Amino acid sequence: MNGHPSAGVPILQLGDVLISGLLNELDDKSAMAFTEELTQTISSTGARGVLIDISRLELIDSFVARMLTHLTTTARLLGARVIVAGMRPPVAITLVELGIELSGVETALSAEQGLTALGWHRAAPTRAGEAR
Amino acid sequence: MTGSHAGTTRAPQRADKVVPAHHSTESSTHPVASEEDLLSIRHAVRAATLHAGFGIVDQTRVVTAASELARNAYVHGGGGTLTLDIVRRLGTTGVRLTVEDDGPGIEDIEEAFTDGFTTGAGLGHGLGGARRLMDEFTLSSTAGRGTVVTATRWNNRRAP
Q: Is A43 exposed, middle or buried (0-12, 13-18, 19+ CB in 10 A)?
């Protein structure tokens, strides 16, 4: 409805990976705006991977599920791999009962595991004693 | 709580009936007329499930079902109302959702419950999915005269 839709969530770029997250208070407009914004950012940055943290989402209904599915498919068409990370257990249980498998959407238990899957690794701990 | 279904369809006339569910009053009616309303409804339903002592998984089930039903009423029924009741029986507490719209009604109810069936935006899991998330579920619809869904979930945390 308004001319400048914004999902209100930052999309960070780390090399060829984009990182973002969804807020609990996700209304329909923000969800659509987020999809659009992320898709444009993938295109403009040439990102190869996208991590979406959903650990704050207390609810995924069929609308949000559809948005995640569409977003993942769109990103794939643009050459980027999406990983949705951090789903809360009650949300997972409810989704299964709803009959939604989020098929085609890659998931990870946590943001860190998702990033690892996208090729990021925690830097080896620096050893202060070896600074010769 | 009003005794008849007809009573809950009307806009509340008296101030004492519109107190939100998380107050001591056990029934409240919420408009389903905008996307903002869908968010407010989630809050109200969450508060009701907390009031009824539901665990986190049951809270999530009921709020998700309410979100699906309210969205159905908004998208397909052109808007309506959601009435939230705390109900009791034999020492257990439940949350009952009554979602009404004055939309075109549902022509083929069996078909509408089928996963994957949709006439609008969405995955088409809304109605059948919402039914699975609740303990009791009734739907009545008359073509041209709208749809009423009543769905209850009881707080029966069973022993493992």
A: middle
Q: How far is CA A73 from CA A39, A84, B59, B60, B101, in A?
A: 10, 13, 31, 27, 34
Residue B135's closest CA among B65, B86, B30?
B65
Cα A20 from Cα A12, distance rounded (Å): 6
Q: Is B38 on the interface with A (CB under 8 A)?
A: yes
In tens, the pLDDT along B91-115 reads 889 999 999 998 877 777 777 777 6
Superfamily (CATH H level) for B26-154: Histidine kinase-like ATPase, C-terminal domain (3.30.565.10)
CATH of domain A12-120: 3.30.750.24
Segments in chain B forming alpha helices (H): 5-9, 35-51, 56-75, 109-113, 126-133
Q: Does B56 touch chain A (CB under 8 A)?
A: yes
Question: How many residue contacts between A and B have a Cβ separation below 8 Å?
Answer: 73
The full set of domain ranges for chain A reads 12-120
How much is the ipTM here? 0.85
